[in-house]
Design brief:
Chain A: Keywords: ATP-binding, Cell membrane, Coiled coil, Kinase, Membrane, Nucleotide-binding, Phosphoprotein, Transferase, Transmembrane, Transmembrane helix, Two-component regulatory system. The complex is a heterodimer. By secondary structure, chain A is of the alpha+beta class. Chain A contains 23 helices and 18 strands. In chain A, the strands form four sheets. Chain A has a six-stranded antiparallel β-sheet, with helices on both faces. A five-stranded antiparallel β-sheet of chain A has the order 2-1-5-4-3, sandwiched between helices. The relative contact order of chain A is 0.03. Chain B has a single domain (3-119), classed as Rossmann fold (3-Layer(aba) Sandwich), CATH 3.40.50. Helix content of chain B is 43%, strand content 19%. The chains are: A alpha+beta, B alpha/beta. The A-B interface holds A 622, 625-626, 629-630, 632-638, 640-641, 644-645, 651, 658, 661-662, 748, 796-799 and B 9-10, 12-13, 15-17, 19-20, 23, 33, 54-57, 59, 83-84, 86, 104-109.
């Protein structure tokens, strides 16, 4: 089962082989590893054991050495403590010796155990009791010596006894031979240790060898397995490649057209097997199809030949049809042109269509070039051309073009033909056929235009001429209409220009029409309408736009509503727009022709200026009457008092002074009015003379400084003398008086008033600065207009005619200077006067000084 | 004798009226602008107030308007001295509560008669 499953795919076969080899490799590696590890463990244990034995042997030997040392000490000092230590050591030595006796494996170990045991017997059974008896003898005083001698021991009873039993022996000097016993034991130890070392080395060497052997076996194992792998897989791959190659070869043969009827099918169930089977099927099916196709091909060739014959026949037919179609289309085109031309001639906008008309005429008549020559007023010609040179068109306009002359005198179509030199406009000699057809006014039989046409090669056919003639009749009607239209248009434009040039804005409405006619001033008045020149607008749009800016839209709507219903209001309407910026006088004029009402004209007249003037005038009247009445009242009152009462002298004096000053005030007021009158009529004249401005300003300032206690009035100049100007001294005084008077008047709470004079090369400048109530920003622009007065509660309370500054401006401008104002409300104002400095040479200056000296 | 308040900003006119009426034996108090006039009217008793129309601070009309708001000043006699004889101004002043009008330029003798008439028709309390 599994083998079949594996055989079905090449991949599976390869993987199976690979897995087998891999598994074998892994198992053998595991075995080798396990064996090596066990060996290593065993050896390590053995070495541990050897090391332990060696340590134990060393320890036992040291114990012996120690005991010997203790024994000597005990013999000398006889200390019980040392004795006790020796008893403890005896137990230890006994235990250690027994370990060796029980655990020794080799002879050397056993020898060492035995020699230790012999030494044990010798020391603890013979020597220790002997030493004990020696110590005892020393304590009893039987023996008295500082150093232990072997001979003394043997002389002791126990020594004698032991010697007798042979358990101790004497050396040559008669001492007890302790050393030889010890030496024997040491020798045994040395031998044992040597043996242990050798043993350990042997064990390590053995381990190394074993490991090497194992590794060698493992390596050879791998080599063998790799060999097996190659041995197994190579033929497998070779077989597959060979089979595939055979398939490729067969495919190539098939592709090159050979007949590959059969391929040997390998005995395989995998892809190659399937591929081979499919290939066989394909090859056989292809070979079947090929034969079938060959048969079909022959059949088709026969059919194709037949079709070709048919096609040729059809092509011939088609050509015939195309020719017929082209002819029809040409006719149709011709008709279309004629139609277009007729339409153009009938259209209202024919004015701009002359070029189109002549172009169409040229096309219809198959001409090369053409022109419409109009006979205008006074027998002058004008021309519209098509395809014509400037030269020729000028000839036509010239008035003595023979063909036109002929047509004019005959009043019918005339022709001519002439040979033309080769150079122009065709590169070879050719004939040029011309025709001129006069267009007659049907009423007066007068010629109003000519149609002029030119063609090369052929004469105009009768048919073409008939076309031209028929168009000439149509053209005559059309031309007359166009002339009428032109005239009307000119009239209309004239009317529009007239309407545009009047000051009043006009909206002309006709009953039942939404479109209204408006003029340019309306757009000026209401820029919201946005056009700018005379146009038609919708009534609703117009009225809505106006209503949007009218200050009282209800009143406006009511008035307009009445007009739209046909009323003609007797009264006009006065209204303002944009918050009283513009005032409009609005009235209605019905338009009647032959007693019939045709429409209504709404007239809007901008009366802002007039309104403003009215306001100023009425304000002037009230101001002037107020200004006049105050001095008049005092003069009237005081004189009456003086006439009717007995008044003491001091009071009389005061009254008279008052009357005098008030009279002066009146006189000044009257002078102001007269000045303004002169200003308006342009009769003001100035007595200009060289004038040193500095003393004039200084004196005026001083005068005002003396007349007020509330204000501090100062004068500063940056020049010692001069500057000199050419001016009317009286007017300069008046200017200065007005400015200072204002500065004082409009600083009701006092403060500083400063007059500063400066000069540069060309100009003289003086400023008057106060700390008064100031001037609102909005009023600054109008400040120097006559009768203008700042309209707020502060200034109302301060009287004035509104003439002072207007007079100042007039004076300054009369001297080619300028006056400027700058102000901050509630902080103060600054008036600046700039005048041109007198052009002076050195001598002129000295002359002036002379004059001033006089 | 009757107490009169004279509110007038023009020095010469004030002097004229003062001299005219003082000689007739009236006690005259002076105010040179509208604010001063209002304060004096509110703080003192006067039998008659002579009020100029155009003054710095409050105008004569504004003074009357403010004064008449107080219940105890409803019957105070106020005469406007005005150069503005226009009908519209007069109507406005009357509406607000001015009792008499006297036009500039005026005759001092006529003023004495008018003031005397006003004050004698209504006995001093």
């Amino acid at each position: 089962m599994i083998i079949q499953w594996i055989n079905r795919k090449i991949g599976r076969q390869l993987m199976a082989s690979f897995y087998i080899v891999l598994t074998t490799l892994m198992i053998s590696s595991l075995i080798v590893y396990n064996y090596t590890d066990t060996k290593l463990q065993e050896t390590r244990q053995k070495l541990e054991d050897i090391r332990d034995r060696s340590a134990r042997a060393g320890a036992l030997w040291e114990e012996w050495q120690d005991l010997q040392f203790n024994m000597r000490g005990y013999a000398l000092i006889g200390d019980r403590e040392i004795y006790q230590k020796m008893v403890d050591q005896r137990a230890t030595i006994d235990e250690q010796t027994r370990w060796f006796e029980e655990n020794a494996i080799y002879t050397q170990g056993k020898d060492y155990a035995r020699s230790s045991r012999e030494l044990y017997a010798y020391y603890f059974e013979s020597i220790l009791p002997l030493i004990e008896s020696y110590v005892e003898a020393k304590e009893t005083g039987t023996v008295d010596e500082s150093f232990l001698r072997g001979t003394t021991l043997t002389s002791l009873p126990l020594g004698k006894e032991l010697l007798a039993s042979g358990r101790i022996k004497l050396d040559g000097a008669g001492n007890i031979d302790v050393l030889s016993e010890i030496n024997k034991s040491e020798l045994a130890l040395g031998g044992y240790r040597e043996f242990l070392e050798e043993w350990s080395e042997t064990t390590s060497g053995q381990l190394e060898r074993e490991i090497q052997t194992t590794q060698l076996i493992w390596l050879s194992n791998i080599v063998v397995l790799v060999g097996v792998l190659i041995f197994l897989i190579y033929p497998f791959i070779r077989r597959i490649t060979a089979e595939l190659l055979s398939l490729v070869k067969n495919s190539e043969r098939l592709a090159s057209g050979e007949d590959v009827s059969r391929v040997k099918i390998p005995d395989r169930t995998d892809e190659i097997g399937i591929l081979a089977v499919s290939f066989n099927q394909m090859a056989s099916s292809i070979s079947d199809n090929k034969q079938h196709l060959l048969a079909k091909n022959e059949e088709l060739q026969a059919q194709q030949e037949e079709l070709q014959a048919q096609q040729e026949e059809l092509q011939a037919q088609q050509q015939e049809l195309e020719e017929a179609l082209e002819l029809t289309m040409r006719n149709e085109q011709h008709l279309q042109y004629r139609n277009d031309l007729t339409e153009t001639l009938a259209a209202r906008e024919a004015l701009t269509a002359y070029p189109e008309i002549i172009e169409k005429l040229v096309t219809i008549t198959d001409s090369e070039i053409g022109a419409l020559v109009f006979v205008d007023e006074g027998a002058a010609y004008s021309i519209v051309t098509h395809g014509m040179t400037e030269e020729l068109s000028e000839q036509l306009l010239g008035g003595d073009f023979s063909l036109l002359k002929r047509a004019e005198s005959l009043k019918k179509a005339v022709h001519s033909s002439k040979q033309v030199a080769s150079d122009h406009p065709l590169p070879y000699p050719y004939y040029m056929y011309e025709t001129a057809v006069p267009i007659l006014d049907p009423a007066s039989e007068e010629i109003i235009a000519f149609i002029y046409l030119v063609r090369y090669r052929d004469q105009f056919t009768n048919e073409q001429m008939r076309d031209v003639m028929s168009f000439s009749r149509q053209l005559s009607l059309s031309l007359l209409r166009m002339r009428l239209f032109d005239e009307m248009n000119r009239e209309k434009t004239k009317t529009e220009r007239i309407l545009d040039s009047i000051r009043e804005a006009v909206i002309y409405i006709e009953p039942g029409k939404q479109e209204v006619f408006v003029n340019r001033p309306l757009y000026d008045l209401f820029p919201e309408l946005q056009h700018g020149t005379t146009k038609t607008e919708t009534l609703q749009g117009c009225l809505d736009t106006i209503r949007a800016v009218v200050d009282e839209p209800e009143t406006f709507s009511r008035y307009v509503e009445g007009v739209l219903q046909g009323e003609v209001p007797k009264n006009s309407l006065q209204f303002s727009i944009r918050q009283q910026v513009v005032f409009i006088h609005f009235y209605v004029e019905p338009i009647e022709i032959d007693g019939m009402r045709k429409g209504t004209m709404l007239v809007l007249r901008d009366v802002t200026k007039e309104t403003e003037m009215d306001r100023l005038k009425s304000e002037l009247v009230s101001t002037v009457s107020h200004e006049l009445r105050t001095p008049l009242s005092s003069i009237y009152g005081f004189t009456e008092l003086m006439l009717n009462r007995d008044i003491d002298l001091s009071k009389q004096d005061r009254y008279l002074k008052t009357i005098h000053s008030e009279t002066e005030r009146l006189a000044n007021l009257v002078n102001d009015f007269l000045d303004v009158q002169r200003m308006e009529s342009g009769t003001q004249s100035y007595q200009k003379r060289p004038l040193d401005l500095r003393p004039l300003l200084e004196e005026t300032t001083q005068f005002y400084a003396a007349s007020t206690t509330k204000h501090t009035i100062t004068f500063r100049s940056f020049n010692e003398t001069g500057p000199w100007i050419e001016a009317d001294e009286e007017k300069m005084k008046q200017l200065m008086n007005n400015l200072l008077n204002n500065a004082v008047k409009y600083s009701p709470s006092g403060g500083t008033i400063e007059v500063v004079l400066t000069a540069d090369q060309h100009h003289v400048q003086f400023t008057v600065r106060d700390e008064g109530i100031g001037i609102p920003k909005t009023a600054l622009a109008k400040l120097f207009e006559k009768f203008y007065r700042v309209d707020n509660s502060d200034s109302r309370k301060i009287g004035g005619t509104g003439l002072g500054l207007a007079i100042c401006k007039e004076i300054v401008e009369g001297h080619d200077g300028e006056i400027l104002v700058d102000s901050v409300e509630r902080k103060g104002s600054l008036f600046t006067v700039k005048l041109p400095q007198m052009v002076t040479s050195h001598s002129a200056v000295s002359e002036m000084i002379d004059m001033s000296g006089k | 004798m009757a107490r009169i308040l004279l509110a007038e900003d023009e020095d010469v006119l004030r002097m004229l009226v003062l001299d005219t009426l003082e000689d007739e034996g009236y006690t005259i108090d002076e105010a040179t602008d509208g604010d001063e006039a209002y304060q004096k009217i509110m703080s003192q008793h006067y039998d008659l107030v002579l009020l100029d129309y155009m003054m710095p601070g409050m105008t004569g009309i504004e003074v009357i308007e403010k004064v008449r708001r107080h219940p105890d000043k409803q019957h105070l006699k106020i005469m406007m001295l005005t150069a503005k004889s226009q009908q519209s101004d007069r109507e406005r002043a009357e509406e607000i509560g001015a009792n008499y009008f006297f036009s500039k330029p005026f005759s001092p003798l006529e003023l004495i008669d008018v003031v005397g008439g006003i004050l004698s028709d209504h006995p001093v309390d």
